[in-house]
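Notes for week 9. Today we move from apo structures to complexes. The key idea is that a small molecule is not decoration. When we ask for a structure prediction with zinc ion present, the ligand SMILES becomes part of the input, just like the chain. The input block below holds both the sequence and the ligand string. Read it once before you look at the output, and try to guess where the molecule might sit.
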Amino acid sequence: MNRLSIDFKPDGLVHSIRMTRQVLGFPVYKVNAFFVDGLLIDTGFAFGRNRFLKLLDTLHPDVVVNTHHHEDHTGNNFSMREKFGLLPLAHPKTFFYLQDPSRWVPWYRRFVWGCPPPSETGELNSKVQTEHFLFLVIPTPGHSDDHICLFEPNEKWLFSGDLFLSEQMKYLRKEENIFSIIDSLMKVAALHPKKMFCSFNGPIDQPMEAIHKKIEYLENLQKGVEDGVRRGLSPGEIQRRLLGRGDRMGFFTAGEISKRNLIEAFLKK
Ligand SMILES: [Zn+2]
């Protein structure tokens, strides 16, 4: 049911650890953790625990950082302490989320990738130093209020967590703040990354182009929503006009991730 594949990038420095969850033989979700110079960025989802830990036995992490609290990024935090004696570092708010993940992980996400056991995190400073690299901690709220990215200024690597995800998003989680997402995208674009390591897509070679396309797409969407409001259209009509009919994701997640959330997020301004 679970598959864990490991993708070593050609430059040999950053290793993508791609975890894929299959249900009835179909891949339903993937997430990447990354390993570079002793630094593990995110701990994947709980259902992949045994294979993930086996892999880490060969990599020997020295420090663990979470980009945010979601269960596909912190699923094996508990085992970092237990197995390697490492306390994962994260935004101060992450600590409170991870005290009891069962309070906020909905049923369908438990079914797909599992619910992490309660765990603790240490507070991230503004930098993370490894043997050969220095990673700047960039607060990037929007996808979640505790979201951070890591940026290595000499290599110009950006570890973007779930900030980017795709150039043309059609869905949004209820708790996401679309305006903070746009601000955070602009913040990381100002760093001029040369390579982006996205938790969903893995390595992206032209990050500036991808980030700017996403900002442009969201700004056009905002204009479309504002235009719909001026014409007196309902949120449902605006949604159908801009994002198309149907909202299967909204149906399966009971509205937690939906097209309607994306439209309504722009209406909150
Ligand atoms: Zn997330």
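The domain at 2-219 is CATH 3.60.15.10 (Metallo-beta-lactamase; Chain A).
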